[in-house]
């Protein structure tokens, strides 16, 4: 099997236990951090006159980090990490934000996992990260503002802000994949 075919396969990559634990901790921390920002910072500008909850700058990259968790630790661990991050969000955010996060992260991250799993076998890791991230952005951007703020007014800003994070995360993924 060549390096290129290993990269395109859906197989979990091996790495040190430290790397796997670190990526899982990064994911859970991002979920909790996003909810803290949404609860305590409020709306921020994301460009082009649009605004979104401050969580948007963490919520976009977290979609990519979830793919890294799946790649390095497996689908089961990524689903457990989603549950842990969601549960811990109730500690740092009020019930409206934490519940909105629980619903939107659960739905968007499970769809993200399904798209990533299908795409990684056919198109490789980088394309899978981008495709699954875009699906996650769309779902999370529709659900979170509707549930947390009972409004879709921030949805365009959420779409844009989270897309920044997914594109940046995809670029980082591509650069890491190219390392010798």
Automatic annotation (TrEMBL):
InterPro entries reported in the protein's UniProt record: YhhQ
One Pfam family this sequence matches: Vut_1
Record field: transmembrane: 21-38, 44-65, 72-92, 98-118, 125-147, 159-176
Keyword Transmembrane helix among UniProt keywords: yes
Alphabetic keyword roster: Membrane, Transmembrane, Transmembrane helix
Protein name: VUT family protein
Species annotation: Amycolatopsis pretoriensis
């Amino acid at each position: 099997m060549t390096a290129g075919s290993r990269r395109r396969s859906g197989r979990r990559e091996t790495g040190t236990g430290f790397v796997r634990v670190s990526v899982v901790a990064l994911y859970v921390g991002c979920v909790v951090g996003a909810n803290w920002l949404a609860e305590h910072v409020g709306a921020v500008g994301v460009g082009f006159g649009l605004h979104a909850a401050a969580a948007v700058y963490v919520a976009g990259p977290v979609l990519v980090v979830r793919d890294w968790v799946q790649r390095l630790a497996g689908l089961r661990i990524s689903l457990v990490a989603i549950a842990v991050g969601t549960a811990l969000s109730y500690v740092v955010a009020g019930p409206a934000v934490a519940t909105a996060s629980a619903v939107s992260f659960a739905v968007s991250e499970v769809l993200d996992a399904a798209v990533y799993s299908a795409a990684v076998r056919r198109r490789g890791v980088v394309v899978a990260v981008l495709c699954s991230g875009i699906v996650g952005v769309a779902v999370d951007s529709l659900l979170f503002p509707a549930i947390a703020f009972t409004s879709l007014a921030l949805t365009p800003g959420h779409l844009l802000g989270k897309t920044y994070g997914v594109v940046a995360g995809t670029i980082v993924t591509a650069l890491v994949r190219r390392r010798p």
